[in-house]
Design a protein that fits this description.
By secondary structure, the protein is α/β, with parallel strands linked by helices. It contains twelve helices and ten strands. It has two domains: 1-57; 64-354, Glycosidases (TIM Barrel), CATH 3.20.20. Helix 6 runs parallel beside helix 7 (203-221). It starts with a helix and ends with a helix.
Length: 356
């Protein structure tokens, strides 16, 4: 009997040890699975973070998605990261005549060529805004189109035949109040408040007081938008603006040239002014100042060298197939932008856009 009890005790001990072993194995297996699961989750988490980072990070490019809000530093444009930046693009012709040419296909093609800005020329007179205020609705549609394509857009109060910007001051304040409210959340909208003051107009008596009034309206809605202010004599007198600039950290001053008319004397003037004010070449062409009279490419080359040496932003005149030598397109091409439809001027301009 005693011997049987010993055998039972040994068997019970063996069973107990076996049971302990099984339990230990199970616990180890469970812990191993938990650890494996934790490691797996870590890998998945890292992958998710990597994907999320890739989704939020934008590859460096020349468009708004990367460069964002523009600022001025040392009288030059910089992007949101403080990096030197240049805008290059095309202006519409008067949208009261050629609005159909500002369409999604053309904007996409210009972007593919290398444009990162488009200027909308809304004339004030010549059947423009002051006689047809519904023209602003066309302008807004065009602005939305450019914004959708990840580009910067300039809305241009295109005074020309009116000469003195003070002539339509009230209409200008009304318009820029509306547009700066409507686009206050868009950092890729630039306001050009007087295209080409001309005639019996001076900086101190006409343009500067006009600009102060309009700026006060814009600044109520958008304190840090880039605003381009025209200068007298069809935006050539940047030297006058440099003598008495506006007290605003986000104002640039427009310089316009046409290579068949404006040569080294205007570059010298601009070079001197650049010591005091930031300049934006918001309109230029390879023709003479009338928009016609030939294509002056040698002088255009000199201008482009000057522009690039000084990292100036520029917009070329203009997206049209009108019978004039400054037109981007050949005549009667229905406003379709492609390689086959480019005029002599257009071929030159597109080559400039393509340059890095």
């Amino acid at each position: 009997m005693e011997k049987l009890n010993k055998i039972i005790t040994v068997l019970a001990l063996i069973c107990f040890i076996f049971l302990i072993g099984v339990i230990t194995y199970k616990i180890g297996t469970i812990n191993g699975r938990k650890e494996a699961l934790r490691e797996k989750n870590k890998v998945v988490s890292k992958q998710n973070k990597k994907v999320k980072k890739e989704e939020t990070e934008v590859k460096k490019n020349i468009y708004y998605s990367y460069n964002g809000k523009l600022n001025l530093k040392d009288k030059k444009i910089v992007n949101k990261n403080g990096e030197s930046f240049q805008l290059k693009g095309i202006s519409s012709h008067g949208i009261q005549w050629f609005k159909e040419y500002v369409n999604d296909d053309n904007i996409k093609t210009l972007k593919k060529y290398g444009a990162n800005v488009f200027r909308i020329a809304m004339y004030t007179e010549e059947n423009g805004y002051t006689v047809n205020k519904s023209l602003k609705n066309d302008a807004f549609k065009m602005m939305d189109l450019v914004i959708k394509n990840d580009m910067y857009v300039i809305i241009d109060w295109h005074i020309l035949s009116d000469g003195d910007p003070l002539k339509h001051l009230n209409e200008s304040k009304e318009f820029f109040d509306e547009v700066s409210k409507k686009y206050k959340d868009y950092d890729n909208v630039i306001y050009e408040i007087c295209n080409e003051p001309n005639g019996n107009v001076t900086w101190d008596n006409n343009v500067r007081p006009y600009a102060k009034e309009v700026l006060s309206v814009i600044r109520k809605n958008k304190k840090d938008a880039i605003v381009i202010v025209g200068t007298p004599t069809w935006s050539q007198d940047v030297d006058k603006a440099a003598e008495h600039p506006l007290n605003d950290d986000y104002v640039m001053y427009s310089l316009h040239f046409y290579s068949g008319t404006h040569t080294s004397w205007l570059r010298d003037r601009a070079k001197e002014a650049l010591n005091k004010i930031p300049i934006f070449v918001s309109e230029w062409g390879v023709s003479d100042a009338s928009g016609n009279g030939g294509v002056y490419l040698d002088e255009a080359d000199k201008w482009m060298s000057f522009i690039n040496e000084n990292n100036l932003s520029w917009v070329n005149w203009s997206l049209t197939d009108k019978n004039e030598s400054s037109a981007l397109l050949k005549e009667n091409t229905n406003g379709v932008v492609n390689d086959n439809n480019l005029s002599e001027s257009g071929k030159y301009i597109i080559n400039q856009l393509k340059k890095k």
